[in-house]
Specification:
The structure is a homodimer of 244-residue chains. By secondary structure, chain A is of the alpha/beta class. Chain A folds into two domains: 2-161, SPOUT methyltransferase, trefoil knot domain (Alpha/beta knot), CATH 3.40.1280.10; 179-243, Helicase, Ruva Protein, domain 3 (Orthogonal Bundle). In chain A, 45% of the residues lie in helices and 12% in strands. Chain A is built from ten helices and seven strands. Chain A has helices at residues 13-25, 45-51, 55-60, 67-70, 94-103, 124-128, 147-161, 179-195, 207-218, 222-243, and strands at 2-8, 31-34, 62-64, 76-80, 91-92, 110-115, 132-134. Chain A has a seven-stranded parallel β-sheet. Chains A and B meet through helix 1, strand 5, helix 7, helix 9 and helix 10 of A and helix 1, helix 7, helix 9 and helix 10 of B.
């Protein structure tokens, strides 16, 4: 199964190296950095040192400007966040979630694990678009996991859940639209909801995060995204006529 | 259960700090160092920095000269070694071993996890005295786990095997709307889709059954049904204005 690790606004180059090593040791190699602090982070000395031989992961890694770019092709988004958010996705432990995701009849096509910055974690709006917030069970009063350590644990649990090395990738039955397609549809729908006076842009009241969660659960296919965009378009056209 | 982490001839002070943090985050605090490279390793800057707040673990840590001293009071010894030794204890994966140890009628009184030096791992004679050699399943061809990362994984698996810290704060179960509420919403939505000229009642093309399936997967709550009915209402009102 396609698996991607996405680091958002990472500060410490050493951590990026540690993450590359943690991924490689569990057989993963798709690393994307969103706005890292250092533009040359993939070539910095601390990075190379902490990567300790996982140079191919660094070589393959991409640096992008937006989370959207980072998530291209991914359909199941796992935030890693210690503190549950209101209106956010359900908070689950990794093992519990992984066994459920893989046990369900329709496993996702691509799974992305999102990690926020060392100091501030993930932004609410980035958490909102995820299907789940993975919370690694840690000691009460000291939940301070190092970034590379967190990646190590998630990579390990995910690899184990996948059955270890060489396990056959389960076949997706219903092709699920990727995160970009879903967020594009939601933006379209948001415009339509504003146009029909259901959504007040001045007082959005978490409507879009809520709809995002609802559609995450529905896990729409590309065809369904197409239908939903058609609905949004018809709403906008009707609203347009109403204005004349 | 008493749990101790024993680091043998560790070279890098940063790793000692990383180990302290990795232990603490999983609720362990008994750390013993056998002949570390630096006598003042517990007070070095890299150590404190990587410990990132796990200072109490460092403060409690002991430095000793021999493995014997380090193992005082421990009854079940787990080596961590990537390569199996002839004549050594059985090599097992952590999860497999932990569930067996804890499932057996007579769980040990104290468990020690032994970690060799970064460069050379554990000496054969140290491995020989252990009850098991734990081998963390890693990618073929790249089994190079950082020391703190290895401690993190073992501490996590052991904590989980011990029953964990419980799942993240259980969220209120999301009450799912009943079938009648869902079909009522779908009828409302159908009228709205006709009103905005998206659905042609003469050629409905399975649109509503498809949306029904999509919303079945989303399993909306009563509150979400309410939101969706609000959307349908706003669409109908807008369509009404468009006709005037």
């Amino acid at each position: 199964m396609r698996t991607r690790f996405v680091l958002i606004q990472t500060s410490h180059a050493g951590n990026v190296g540690g993450v590359a090593r943690a991924m490689k040791v569990m057989g993963f190699d798709d690393l994307v950095l969103v706005q890292p602090r250092w533009a040359n982070v993939l070539r910095r000395e601390e990075t190379i040192q902490r990567a300790s031989g996982a140079n191919d992961v660094l070589a393959r890694a991409r640096i992008v400007d937006t989370l959207d770019e980072a998530l291209e092709g991914m359909s199941h988004l796992c935030a890693t966040a210690m503190t549950p958010r209101d209106f956010g996705p359900p908070t689950r432990s990794p093992r519990e979630h992984f066994s459920e995701v893989l046990g369900a009849g329709n496993p996702p096509g691509g799974v992305a694990f999102l990690f926020g910055s060392e100091r501030f974690g993930m932004r609410n709006e980035d958490v909102y678009r995820c299907h789940v917030a993975l919370s690694i069970p840690t000691a009460p009063g000291f939940g301070s996991l190092n970034l590379a350590a967190a990646v190590q644990l998630i990579a390990y649990d995910w690899r184990q859940a996948l059955g270890g090395f060489g396990a056959p990738a389960p076949q997706a039955e219903r092709p699920q639209a990727d995160a970009k397609a879903l967020s594009g549809m939601l933006e379209h729908l948001e415009q339509a909801l504003v146009a029909v006076d259901f959504l007040d842009p001045e007082a959005p009241k978490k409507l879009m995060p809520r709809l995002n969660q609802l559609f995450n659960r529905a896990a729409p296919s590309d065809e369904e995204i197409h239908i939903l965009r058609g609905v949004a378009k018809a709403m906008l056209q009707t609203a347009d006529r109403a204005k004349r």
